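4.2 Preliminary Data

To establish feasibility before requesting continued support, the project team ran the inverse folding procedure on a target of 220 residues. The structure was first converted into the token representation described in Section 3, and no sequence information of any kind was made available to the design step. The complete token record follows.
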């Protein structure tokens, strides 16, 4: 016996609201290259190795309280000793002497990294300038609140710990979001609706009563 499907309220044709209104897959948004593969754990060995290295660096600076100059000198000392032993022992075992990989000192890689950092900083500065001019009051209040929360967090932990937590989030949150994309988008959409209702109340009761001057337009 065929049972007809009864359409519920959740089966309507409302469009799915994506996080940050994205239209592309997470891998494409992150660049679609090696960095995106690392952040999304496409190669678990490389991602786990980078995470372990970052954890080791945090442990040395925060727990062991290593000095940066001391740590760099010890690393260079250990590397030179290993290269010295390897170079002198290689002929005895018919092995090739060590050589520095070209990828480490590649001029193209450094130039591409510099251009990427420059474009990101320029874009971030432009967006921050537009928000600071008060063109969108909602974004302005969100940035002010985020900076205040970040300042409070910065008082409770060191810069190294804050940097490590940010790096840890970059290596865990994207892959978790990709795995639980539907659930996260649903929660974000519901939270966004609640925030819009709350903002409308604040806007009608508080913000609209604040006197504002005329907005000056740019003269080209």
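Position-by-position output of the design step:
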């Amino acid at each position: 016996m065929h049972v007809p499907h009864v359409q519920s309220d959740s089966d309507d044709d409302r469009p799915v609201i994506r996080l940050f209104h994205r239209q592309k897959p997470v891998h494409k948004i992150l660049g679609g290259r090696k960095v995106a593969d690392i952040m999304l754990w496409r190669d678990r060995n490389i991602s786990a190795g980078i995470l372990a290295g970052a954890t080791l660096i945090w442990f040395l600076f925060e727990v062991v309280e290593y000095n940066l100059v001391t740590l760099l000198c010890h690393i260079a000392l250990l590397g030179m000793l290993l290269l010295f032993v390897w170079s002198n022992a290689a002929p005895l075992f018919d092995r090739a002497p060590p050589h520095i990989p070209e990828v480490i000192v590649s001029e193209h890689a450094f130039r591409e990294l510099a251009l990427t950092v420059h474009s990101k900083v320029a874009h971030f500065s432009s967006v921050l300038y537009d928000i600071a001019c008060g063109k969108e009051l909602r974004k302005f209040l969100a940035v002010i609140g985020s900076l205040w929360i970040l300042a409070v967090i910065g008082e409770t932990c060191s810069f190294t710990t804050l940097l490590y937590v940010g790096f840890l989030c970059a290596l865990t949150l994207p892959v978790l979001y990709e795995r639980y994309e539907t659930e996260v988008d649903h929660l974000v959409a519901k939270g966004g609706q609640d925030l819009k209702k709350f903002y409308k109340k604040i806007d009608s009761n508080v913000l609209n009563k604040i006197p504002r001057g005329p907005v000056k337009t740019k003269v080209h």
